[in-house]
Write a structure and sequence with these properties.
Length: 256
């Protein structure tokens, strides 16, 4: 991959994750510079979530290194997490809390000073359009609003890097449009890695595509370059996934 002139904010170098005899990912390497929205694309089971969990420190790689803003996520996890916001698919929320109480709780847990916390809460409420539901129990909110609450929590500490796993799963068309708008806006001053298997997400939001299949990177380039090579993203998807099926993960496999 050609070297980026901009500061690299997400770096995966030779990432491999093995469960027994099953390799979930093999030698995954890519980098995302500052100010880019990168779609991490691939079919279900391709290795997207495994890679993202390693990048966010939730899993340890069998081999390879992962860095956030130049900080090794394994050896300096807490320092890296100060620069990172992670929105997992169907991320857990405390449903008995209101969005406001949740944001206060997470802000205090992060040790944010009171004046800064008030300022940041006001900003993420505005940015995620939560004004109408800020005092309602999260358990009574629509899935679209719950996703916005999760996004607000992720943005609270002003991270430089955002990693999002399937952020529009289960949303209706209006909610999808709202989340895409927010991600495009965030991409103006953040570095965003967006895991998806939905081609419309790539068209709507991404500056760049890293395509993974069977645990390996099989394409790294822009959406426009994909269309030039295969005419449509659908054709690209079919071409890049037309390979031999891997071994299934053995039952009861242990991570290495």
């Amino acid at each position: 991959m050609a070297a980026e002139s901009a500061q690299l904010m997400i770096e995966a170098s030779g990432l491999t994750k093995i469960y027994g005899k099953f390799k979930a990912i093999t030698d995954v390497s890519f980098a995302v510079p500052k100010g880019q929205v990168c779609a991490f694309l691939g079919p279900n089971g391709a290795g997207k979530s495994t890679t993202m969990k390693i990048l966010t420190g939730y899993l340890t790689a069998t081999a390879g290194t992962a860095r956030i803003a130049g900080i090794d996520i394994h050896s300096h996890r807490m320092q890296a997490l100060e620069r990172l916001g992670y929105l997992p698919e169907n991320g857990p929320l405390y449903t008995e809390m209101t969005p406001l109480s949740l944001l206060r709780f997470f802000g205090r847990a992060r040790g944010m000073e009171s004046a800064r916390l008030r300022t940041r809460i006001a900003e993420v409420i505005r940015r995620c359009a939560l004004e109408a539901v800020i005092e309602k129990p999260i358990g009574k909110l629509s899935k679209g609003y719950k996703q916005r609450v999760g996004m607000a929590q992720v943005l609270l500490h002003e991270p430089d890097v955002l990693i999002m796993d399937e952020p529009t799963t289960g949303l209706d068309p209006n909610q999808i449009s709202e989340v895409r708008r927010l991600i495009r806006e965030l991409g103006q001053d953040k570095t965003v890695l967006l895991s998806t298997h939905i081609l419309q997400e790539v068209e709507a939001m991404a500056d760049r595509v890293v395509f993974v299949n069977l645990g390996r990177i099989v394409y790294d380039g822009t959406p426009a370059e994909m269309r030039e090579r295969w005419n449509t993203l659908e054709q690209a998807f079919h071409a890049l996934t037309r390979v031999e099926t891997p071994l299934a993960e053995p039952e009861g496999a242990q991570a290495q």
